[in-house]
Amino acid sequence: MMRYAKFTEWIYAIIAILAGYETFSKWNEDRNSAYLFLFFTVVSIGMFFFRRHFRKKFEKRNQP
């Protein structure tokens, strides 16, 4: 179960990096699309830290 939690945590980090790249590459061409990717970047970063916080909290609770 913990391996799955760590894996999904890093999936959000990868999505944030890719969306951030798309945001900067589309910023001057299509501003509306860039804002959408900026939103995905912010949400993915938030989910990364949210998942990390609760995974660590769960690990502490299960330690003897």
From TrEMBL:
<feature type="transmembrane region" description="Helical">
    <location>
        <begin position="33"/>
        <end position="50"/>
    </location>
</feature>
<keyword id="KW-1133">Transmembrane helix</keyword>
<keyword id="KW-0472">Membrane</keyword>
<keyword id="KW-0812">Transmembrane</keyword>
<feature type="transmembrane region" description="Helical">
    <location>
        <begin position="7"/>
        <end position="27"/>
    </location>
</feature>
<protein>
    <submittedName>
        <fullName>Uncharacterized protein</fullName>
    </submittedName>
</protein>
